Amino acid sequence: MLEFVVRVVGVVVAFLVAPLLVGQAEHKVMAHMQSRLGPMYAGAFHGWAQLVADGVKFVQKESVVPAAADRRVFEWAPIVAILPYLAAMAAIPLAPGIVGADLDSGLFFVLAVMSVGVLGSLMAGWGSGNKYSLLGGLRVAAQLMSYELPFVLSAASVAVAAGSLSLSGIAEAWNPWWLLWQLPGLSVFFIAGLAELQRPPFDMPVADSEVIFGPYTEYTGLRFAMFLLAEYAGIVVLAGLTTVLFLGGWSGPGPDSIGWIWSILKVALVSVVVIWVRVSFPRMRADQLQKLAWQGLVPVALLQLALTGIGVTIF
């Protein structure tokens, strides 16, 4: 019972802290990449408390429910958007034995719960009583339906190579030469993951500078902050899953007892790459986004899966 409580508390603390760290890193990394100063006075060192100040600001703002909104759907949408990432984070291992829930079908579980997040966006668009929000929600659904297939296929390739659906089992079976063998799958998985999180350059459904934040247009205060937190939590989950599937999880110099350090460093590195992509690439058009998914990523993912099956059978 005590072990269960410790695991639950550990997952909740990680869920509350890690997305905030990624959000703060995004502010600072983007500022350095774009050679701009940004907020520097909230906190004693380089504005470290700016994200905390933003959180306090969101809490103090009034959470308005539009008169034409479906109130229950509108209020539940932020919760539905963020909770799947809490469940996913519980199944991603940091090191042998350091995992919230070591499931035999951990990969299947994480991919399944991550796909639930789209319901939050659909609920936000539908429940807002705003045709522009509804259009944004439908755009999110169309995008996630397109990129879910290459996302799952590239992950399945690793599962075939490892002979296991357990995330811990995949991390233990990983070999350094997989970095070459599964490189196409890694590329597809990462790109599709960015699209699923609606991160630039795949933020067309949200595009705050063009369509006023898509399905989240009518949200204010803490409910709006929950959608932002869900995005950062999604980055942590994507980075953690990429680390386990393609980068060896806790594998690194030294004993497994310090493997959690390597896991955290790899997750941080992948998170920085997510931020770097946002800074470096322009937003795609809707037709370009769909073309990349169906004519680019899906064929590559299928080819990777076929080659992995052949390699496992022969070697």
TrEMBL record:
- Pfam families for the chain: NADHdh
Superkingdom of origin organism: Bacteria
Q: Which GO terms describe its biological process?
A: aerobic respiration
**Membrane topology, record value:** Multi-pass membrane protein
Please classify the protein's predominant subcellular localization into one broad category. membrane
Question: Which reactions does this protein catalyse?
Answer: a quinone + NADH + 5 H(+)(in) = a quinol + NAD(+) + 4 H(+)(out)
* Keyword Membrane appears in the UniProt entry: yes
Asked if the keyword Cell membrane belongs to this entry, the reply reads: yes
Q: What is its EC number?
A: 7.1.1.-
Q: Which residues cross the membrane?
A: 6-23, 76-95, 107-128, 149-171, 177-195, 224-248, 260-281, 293-314
Q: Molecular function (GO) terms listed? A: NADH dehydrogenase activity; oxidoreductase activity, acting on NAD(P)H, quinone or similar compound as acceptor; quinone binding
Sorted UniProt keywords: Cell membrane, Membrane, NAD, Quinone, Translocase, Transmembrane, Transmembrane helix, Ubiquinone
For this record, an example GO cellular component is: plasma membrane
Subcellular location per UniProt equals:
Cell membrane; Membrane
InterPro entries xref list: NADH_UbQ_OxRdtase_su1/FPO
Q: How is this protein organized at the quaternary level?
A: NDH-1 is composed of 14 different subunits. Subunits NuoA, H, J, K, L, M, N constitute the membrane sector of the complex.
Functional summary from the UniProt entry? NDH-1 shuttles electrons from NADH, via FMN and iron-sulfur (Fe-S) centers, to quinones in the respiratory chain. The immediate electron acceptor for the enzyme in this species is believed to be ubiquinone. Couples the redox reaction to proton translocation (for every two electrons transferred, four hydrogen ions are translocated across the cytoplasmic membrane), and thus conserves the redox energy in a proton gradient. This subunit may bind ubiquinone.
Family per UniProt?
A: Belongs to the complex I subunit 1 family.
Q: What is this protein called?
A: NADH-quinone oxidoreductase subunit H
Q: Look up and give the organism this protein is from.
A: Kribbella antiqua
Q: Which gene encodes it?
A: nuoH
